[in-house]
Amino acid sequence: MMQQDTIVAALLGVLEGLTEFVPVSSTGHVLLAGRFLGFNSPGNVFEVVIQLGAILAVIMLYAAKLWQVFSTARTNPTSRHLIIAVLLAFLPAAVIGVLAHGFIKTVLFETPMLIAVMLILGGFVLLYVDRNAPTPRFHRIEAISLPVALTIGFIQCLAMIPGVSRSGATIVGGLLLGADKRTAAEFSFFLSMPTMFGAFAFDLYKNRAILDASASLNIVVGFVCTFLTALVVVRWVLGYVSRHGYALFAWWRIIVGSVALLALLMTA
């Protein structure tokens, strides 16, 4: 059973890496897949903690830019602006996530029907915004204004409902507020670093008492698979959305959500 759980953990890690940085809800996919595969995660810690692999993949791929931004922050107003914008966008999720943590983990994460419905609804929203977004006025993440960054941060909080998608919420928010498709995705990547690391650290602290050796092994396996898969996906996604937009991901959400909803209704 332990070996079977470890194989499933690896599969879920790959799924997390494939879906974290595209607007399809990685948490929704992993929670639904785990349910149908019979994977048991105490306190749903696995689903949150393996996201650290995705964070590290982004940090590695953006290491040069991160170094340039932080090393010049004292003398370069553009670098300081970007750091402040990302921190402002992170703030709403930090506050609301701490206050609503128990409800999110014990109610929302345990409601697969809600996840399936949010996947479908989010798909239609993404499809509409991809086709009808206003004319872009931000073509670099450094150009995003502080009020816009804070607004994107509040929109990101919708992703505390599994199935909405953190990247999906921030990308839709960015597009509606004037970012072009590539810039919306790239700002979502940068915002993911403090947001996901904060969620990882807080969840690990809150659930430290219920982790055991087998759970730790599954987390390590899932983390490695997430990291390796996310390295490939992050490199690919910016180029893809610049050329083709987000319609593919919108239809994927609708199809997966519909199949999951049908399966849940048939097994209820």
Outline: globular
- Number of structural domains: 1
Q: How would you sum up the major sheet?
A: none
Count the helices. How many? 13
Whole-number average pLDDT? 88
Order of helices and strands: HHHHHHHHHHHHH
Strand content: under 5%
Overall structural class, as computed from helix and strand content, comes to mainly alpha
Distance from N terminus to C terminus (CA atoms, Å) equals 25 Å
Mind telling me the C-alpha Rg? 18 Å
* Total beta strand runs: 0
Unreliable residue stretches: none
Helix fraction by DSSP (H/I, runs of at least 4) = over 70%
Task: Please explain how this structure is put together.
Catalyzes the dephosphorylation of undecaprenyl diphosphate (UPP). Confers resistance to bacitracin. It catalyses: di-trans,octa-cis-undecaprenyl diphosphate + H2O = di-trans,octa-cis-undecaprenyl phosphate + phosphate + H(+). It contains 13 helices and no strands. Helix 2 packs antiparallel against helix 8. The chain has 268 residues and is mostly helical. It has one domain. The model has no long low-confidence stretch (mean pLDDT 88).
Question: What topology does this entry show?
Answer:
Blueprint: H1 2-19, H2 26-37, H3 45-49, H4 51-61, H5 63-71, H6 77-99, H7 101-106, H8 112-132, H9 146-156, H10 166-176, H11 181-206, H12 213-244, H13 247-267
